[in-house]
Amino acid sequence: xxxxxxxxxxxxxxxxxxxxxxxxxxxxxxxxxxxxxxxxxxxxxxxxxxxxxxxxxxxxxxxxxxxxxxxxxxxxxxxxxxxxxxxxxxxxxxxxxxxxxxxxxxxxxxxxxxxxxxxxxxxxxxxxxxxxxxxxxxxxxxxxxxxxxxxxxxxxxxxxxxxxxxxxxxxxxxxxxxxxxxxxxxxxxxxxxxxxxxxxxxxxxxxxxxxxxxxxxxxxxxxxxxxxxxxxxxxxxxxxxxxxxxxxxxxxxxxxxxxxxxxxxxxxxxxxxxxxxxxxxxxxxxxxxxxxxxxxxxxxxxxxxxxxxxxxxxxxxxxxxxxxxxxxxxxxxxxxxxxxxxxxxxxxxxxxxxxxxxxxxxxxxxxxxxxxxxxxxxxxxxxxxxxxxxxxxxxxxxxxxxxxxxxxxxxxxxxxxxxxxxxxxxxxxxxxxxxxxxxxxxxxxxxxxxxxxxxxxxxxxxxxxxxxxxxxxxxxxxxxxxxxxxxxxxxxxxxxxxxxxxxxxxxxxxxxxxxxxxxxxxxxxxxxxxxxxxxxxxxxxxxxxxxxxxxxxxxxxxxxxxxxxxxxxxxxxxxxxxxxxxxxxxxxxxxxxxxxxxxxxxxxxxxxxxxxxxxxxxxxxxxxxxxxxxxxxxxxxxxxxxxxxxxxxxxxxx
Length: 654
Known about the structure:
Layout lengths: L2 H12 L5 H13 L3 H12 L3 H8 L10 E4 L7 H4 L20 H18 L7 E6 L5 H14 L3 E5 L5 H10 L4 E5 L8 E7 L10 H10 L17 E4 L4 H9 L5 H6 L4 E5 L9 H7 L3 E4 L1 H4 L20 H10 L3 E5 L6 E6 L5 E3 L2 H18 L11 E6 L5 H9 L2 E5 L3 H13 L3 H4 L7 H11 L2 E7 L3 E3 L9 H17 L4 H12 L3 E8 L2 H17 L4 E2 L2 E8 L19 E5 L4 E6 L5 E8 L14 H30 L1
Parallel strand pairs: 2-3, 2-4, 3-6, 7-8, 7-9, 12-13, 12-14
Antiparallel strand pairs: 1-5, 4-5, 9-10, 10-11, 14-15, 16-21, 17-18, 18-19, 19-20, 20-21
């Protein structure tokens, strides 16, 4: 760092314009990276006295959350150095400089740490290998080139998807290729300025402890983005993947279909699909047509484009992201709309109700319909029976609807709750596989779904379905992450089943309400960006933990589960890791949960309206409309109370 810049930064620190952490991280970055863009960008921001931007870029270092590394690859202010030769309307030539940003510096360090862990852990013949995919986001191709260079120059082979592919296909490919690890470059449904880096273990699931801690330790031991490459003979090889694994993946997706004959009989079911400029168009439309569905796509959104130009946000759970598809469905008379996010691990739907109106379903409702349908068909077909149902399990996150618990109890199968993050559901799948005796397990990955199901029903737990309220679902264990492509198959079958019964999916959901009562869920997410926002999020989480409410919206608090401080075990006796999450149960059956997001600058509140404990939940058909209105009223009241309470707590910090 040149002396003038050092003096300017020291002065900003002394004057309180730059935080101590930011000053340290700037100094560390500039002292440990030879990339001239770093010092140029910091200098330009300092000369412009953009201290807020510098603090946001440097107040912390990127850390693994529920989805690995995720951060801005474009700054709120783009420096001239980052802009380079690009025009103002184009993507900058270089990614955002900062320890809290996703850029070549952080990609290099993360990959170097992962490779060192993989090399140390490798026990097989030949070199260890890493599978790598990227979605359609900005800088994805450049980041992939960095990963490939670092991995191969440090002794790993690289299975590289040349073109964008979905996160679930990467998870599947880690298992299919027997790779040592996997990486997917994605920021899921975040805004265009973000990108991310998700790491998978050799079982195809996102890393969890102890591997996560060991990889982080390797990364933290690296002081910069330079390294000494191995000799040519010791280096790994790039093994390019084009479309040769698509068919293998699709064959396994087809096995998710439980009643192919029923689906064929409903071939007039019309679907409009949108990939919202992401990777979902690579597999899902072809898969739907292969299964006999009539599937149209939204032409303008078929383009894989990291700017996501036709939507405000590429998050399919937002109604606006599906609006073009819904408009097309109205014009064409389609029955359902399906949308997936940029890396196709999430799926949202809109369906017609009994009156023909297009209606958005929540992630909780979609998951409940799929869980119910899969259990019903499995019992109808004798796959599950009174004899083996004790070895069948639904896995969901704590913040996912309790309607799925009621469904599991109806069928007499197990229900297991995990922390938020599909890596925990993936971990359960790994456990169930390992519980099969080794001589019976054999080459588990090469076995058919029927073969692995028989083994799990005999020795461990057969995973019927898993999901989380944030539109993530999984119906099999041939991959170990939420799968938008698989969810498309499963929900299309639900819609076909409803049609075969003369119903819509909305009417099928109503039948669940008749039996189990009205379950209504929603969220409030408070965005608190930047360094100040991060401090507010942490202060809020601490305050809720230390001062949980004793009543909420006029109802007494009956139970508080503080996952950051208290010890919990799940339904299978496994210890639940500590997490900043609080779940509050109320006497009238309502509840809410609070947790900071692991991937976005938000604190999230999950709100639940459900039947009062001890009451008869059943509802007569003629009373359902009134029950829904009453549920919405009390839900809205609790949500308003939660937001007001949060605002009061925030005000106390200022």
